[in-house]
């Protein structure tokens, strides 16, 4: 009879071999071998697993040129745009957590990431997109209901990207225009509520028949499986509209500057944290303002 520990190791090995990040991370998280948000880890590790599968490279038995290979993979997003330093470091952080879990399972003895150099972290004062550019992006995205709603959740409500990607319609209450985000119920801005309602109706909701909401609750709000997929769609829209490419993370960072609203609107459970973030956002806006 197979020992449970050996069975777990076999499941993890199979998921690695099949480049299946969902099974890999979910299994490790279920057995308390990897901490943090599974959705974020899945998003981070997906491009690494896909590239390893494509290049016939074993992450369990990495070759001598593993570090140069990994730097090359981390340098770009799936759409060919350069990956931001913090994105690269986030992906490496997940890979480090994965290797730690593999060592605990006895699948590795050493650490393949010893001496691996992280990218220099982005500065907190990196310039944010202008309000005018974001307004133009919203206008350009109007023909794409999913992207339009996603941009509004990022910009008006600073919704974490990992949370946005896994949202289901059960989190949205159309009767009062609120969204459940973690332990907090967020009142949506009228523009965001209208965008979500339009998207909800495309998913099968009819405001004249309340029971149709129940039929959509199990469905995901957005069609993006990864942050790269969302980023790719943004790039396509900005390119077609001749606008500067703005990654989702920067759209979210502009929320406090342009739509301070209330603590609940932006997902803060403590007023003190909200006020601190608001002061930081204002200082950032002042420091990066064009004379």
TrEMBL record:
<protein>
    <recommendedName>
        <fullName>Integrase</fullName>
    </recommendedName>
</protein>
<dbReference type="GO" id="GO:0003677">
    <property type="term" value="F:DNA binding"/>
</dbReference>
<dbReference type="InterPro" id="IPR011010">
    <property type="entry name" value="DNA_brk_join_enz"/>
</dbReference>
